[in-house]
């Protein structure tokens, strides 16, 4: 699958900066600035790497691939398609970098929210 202006971006969560959409709330036909994929149990690392690369090829600047089964998050960044630029675990915090300046969130809190109550 190749990224193009007509490629749908069916990620679980996405963010588009206001400057890219001119302040208008509308359906987008371009890649989000930030894409978040929460990996399902049946998805494989190669498949998720291909998805991250597709987002980056389409113009997404930051991709977070959340792995609930192993408790880590792969951070992919534009200009780095060989693999994640960093892998975060529960001792780390997500950082919005220049895509969402000032945003930070503890990784452990994400996995606590994804864990169903017993």
Please explain how this structure is put together.
This protein has helices spanning 18-21, 45-58, 107-114, and strands at residues 13-15, 34-38, 62-67, 72-77, 86-88, 93-95, 104-106. By secondary structure, it is an alpha+beta fold. It has one domain (13-19, 29-114): tt1808, chain A. The strands form 2 sheets. Strands 1-2-3-4-5 form a 5-stranded mixed β-sheet, covered by helices on one side. The protein has a two-stranded antiparallel sheet with strand order 6-7.
Class by SSE composition: alpha+beta
Average pLDDT, to the nearest integer?
83
Number of strands: 7
Q: Which runs of at least 5 residues are low in confidence (pLDDT < 50)?
A: 1-9
- Helix fraction bin: 10-25%
CATH class: Alpha Beta
CATH level-four homologous superfamily name: tt1808, chain A
Form type: globular
Question: What is the count of DSSP helices, taking H or I runs of 4+ residues?
Answer: 3
Strand content: 15-25%
Can you give keywords for this protein?
118 residues, alpha+beta, tt1808, chain A, five-stranded mixed β-sheet, 3 helices, globular
Short structural description:
The chain is α+β, with helices and mostly antiparallel strands and 118 residues long. The protein is built from three helices and seven strands.
List the topology elements.
Elements lengths: L12 E3 L2 H4 L12 E5 L6 H14 L3 E6 L4 E6 L8 E3 L4 E3 L8 E3 H8 L4
Parallel strand pairs: 2-3
Antiparallel strand pairs: 1-2, 3-4, 4-5, 6-7
């Amino acid at each position: 699958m190749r990224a193009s202006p007509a490629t749908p971006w069916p990620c679980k969560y996405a963010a588009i900066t206001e400057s890219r959409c001119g302040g208008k709330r509308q359906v987008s036909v371009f890649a989000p600035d930030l894409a978040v994929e929460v990996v399902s149990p049946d998805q494989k690392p190669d498949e998720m790497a291909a998805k991250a690369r597709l987002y980056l090829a389409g113009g997404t600047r930051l991709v977070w691939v959340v792995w609930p089964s192993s408790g880590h998050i792969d951070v992919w960044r534009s200009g780095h398609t060989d693999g994640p630029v960093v892998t975060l675990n529960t001792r780390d915090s997500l950082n919005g970098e220049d895509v969402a300046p000032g945003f930070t969130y503890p990784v452990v809190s994400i996995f606590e929210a994804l864990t169903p109550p017993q």
